[in-house]
Amino acid sequence: MGYNVARMWVSIVIVVLSFSVVGRGQQPSLPSLKSIQRLYVEKMDNDLDQYIRAEITKQFKGKVVVVLKPEDADAILAGVSEHQSGTKAAVTGRWLGLHDTASGSVSLLDKEGKTILWSGEAGDRSIMWGAMKRGGPRKVADRLVNNLKKAMESK
Q1: Domains (ranges, CATH) in the chain?
Q2: Model confidence over 85-98: pLDDT tens digits?
Q3: Helix pair 48-60, 137-154: axis angle to 10 deg
Q4: How many Å apart are CA 46 and CA 29, to the nearest integer?
């Protein structure tokens, strides 16, 4: 009787281990940030997506290219943007550099859009230069893409 019980436990262990190995084999591997070469940028508020596309082309110099269809991409960049306008925002934000008049938050997703690979946020505040430095969504895009580039080079 002891021999049959031992065989049963060995069989159970083998079945459990085989399922765990099979389960691991079915999980798709996530791309590393360094392996991303084609990027799709989704539509964002305040035309932030247009500025991000331009900054990717400028800062990555061909190492990462922007594609126009999500199915052609290695990853997807999605996000939101906020832009304040009016006299108060211009005086305290743009001229005095006390707060952001524009801000954005983006997430780099795998090609299926199910997993976040990287995420970042930025604003356009410039305390040192105030009105002499460009601001708005262009500055936000510049900072976001710069942060993405640093993350892709380090990982």
Answers
A1: 30-154 (3.40.50.10070)
A2: 655 444 444 445 45
A3: 40
A4: 34
